[in-house]
Design goal:
The protein has about 400 residues and is an alpha+beta fold. About 70% of the residues lie in helices and about 15% in strands. The chain contains five helices and eight strands; from the N terminus they run βαββββαβββααα. It has an eight-stranded mixed sheet, with helices on one face. The longest helix is centred in the middle third of the chain and has 197 residues.
């Protein structure tokens, strides 16, 4: 396994985009492996050699693939490369959990890595699992052609005439015998090589056929999976279509229900408008009735007022007539009463005056005066009180008479 390519490494600026690209194009899968405190992206390929992806160390370099070749001793290989004119880009260094590595630039400028790999570190490629390349078939055919060419070589080549001695001729015969023996050996080796090439070619053909059968099986499996996915997608689409139809039906029912509700609302609105109109007409009619009632009430009030005014006028007329009658009666009674009162007063005055004079003569004049002054107002008040009581008695009788007349 030494001196074979064992690892391929992609150095790039963007690991995630690189993973997405190779996963889409080549179907690779990846694992993140912790190495030296960092995470290394390992590439899982169908067969060896495997590989990985890491961030490139030099910003000046473009993204590139780095091949690693297995060697028995990295330090010894670095020394021999340096002696051969190569430049050591990364000297011998240890990778955590793995053997030492180094990176070399050959005299022409090509970069490659070397990896000190032990036998157990490299997984051998099984004949049944390794893919068969066209190069292997061509190689087998080339070997077969070489064997055929070797068979065409003459075993005994004629020697040119010479003037050699018998001893020289003897040695020449020995050489020829040796050549013949060597040719026989070559022929035998060629036969063996031919047989090996035929076996290799047959194995390569079987291997290729097995790979093609495997590939066909994988294609068939993929087709079956695609068919299953298509069926699943079809079933899902049918389910979605069914759901859409149900949703559409439900929406139509909702729309119909909304239309019915709208129609019902319109009818209710119309009914409310009719009720409002009817109420307005009733209100208008009631207002008209109220107006008529108010007018009738106004007329009744005016009639009542007129009747009251008429009654008041009648009362006033009766009142005017009543004092005139009273005045006539009083006018007739007053002179006679006055005369009687005057006569009585005159007589009394004369008697008082005479008495006073007599008393004054007997007593002091001031006392006589006081007594006369007290008695005089009392005599005056008595006739006035009597007149007022008589008038009060006559007044109700006069009102009753006027009321009867009216």
């Amino acid at each position: 396994m030494h001196r074979a390519f064992v690892h391929l490494e992609l150095n790039t600026d963007d690991i995630q985009n690189a993973r997405a690209f190779y996963e889409q194009v080549l179907g690779w899968s990846f694992d993140d492996v912790p190495i030296g405190g960092e995470t290394y992206t390992q590439i899982n390929t169908p067969s060896a050699p495997g590989g990985g992806i890491q961030l490139k160390a030099d910003e000046g370099l473009p993204a590139h693939w780095m091949p690693y070749i297995a060697v028995a001793d990295v330090a010894d290989t670095v020394s021999r490369a340096r002696a051969g004119g190569a430049r050591i880009l990364v000297d011998t260094s240890d990778v955590e959990g793995h053997s030492p590595v180094a990176v070399i630039v050959d005299p022409a400028g090509a970069i490659f890595g070397i990896w000190q790999v032990e036998a157990e570190e490299v997984e051998p490629v099984e004949a049944d699992d390794a893919p068969v390349s066209d190069a292997e078939v061509v190689e087998a055919e080339v070997v077969e052609a070489e064997v055929v060419e070797a068979e065409l070589v003459e075993d005994d080549e004629p020697e040119p005439p010479s003037k050699k001695t018998p001893s020289t001729r003897a040695s020449t015969k020995e050489v020829a015998a040796k050549k013949k023996e060597a040719a026989a050996k070559r022929k035998e080796a060629a036969a063996k090589k031919k047989e090996a090439a035929a076996k290799k070619k047959e194995a390569a053909a079987e291997k290729k056929a097995a790979a093609e059968a495997k590939k066909a099986a994988e294609e068939e499996k993929k087709a079956a999976e695609a068919k299953a996915k298509a069926a699943e997608a079809k079933a899902k689409a049918a389910e979605e279509k069914k759901k859409a139809a149900e949703a559409k039906k439900k929406a139509a029912e909702e729309k119909k229900k909304a239309a019915e509700e709208k129609k019902k609302a319109a009818e209710e609105k119309k009914r409310a408008a009719d009720e409002k109109k009817r109420a307005a007409e009733e209100e208008k009619k009631a207002a008209e009735e109220a107006r008529k009632a108010a007018e009738a009430e106004k007329k009744a009030a005016e009639a009542k007022k007129a009747a009251a005014a008429k009654k008041t006028a009648a009362k006033k007329t009766a009142a005017k007539k009543k004092p005139a009658a009273k005045k006539k009666t009083a006018a007739k009674k007053k002179p006679a009463a006055k005369k009687k009162t005057a006569a009585k007063k005159k007589t009394a005055a004369k008697k008082k005056t005479a008495a006073k004079k007599k008393a004054a003569a007997a007593k002091k004049k001031p006392a006589a005066k006081k007594t006369a002054a007290k008695k005089k107002p009392a005599a005056k008040k008595k006739p006035a009180a009597k007149k007022k009581a008589a008038a009060a008695k006559k007044k109700p009788a006069a009102k009753k008479t006027a009321a009867k007349k009216k």
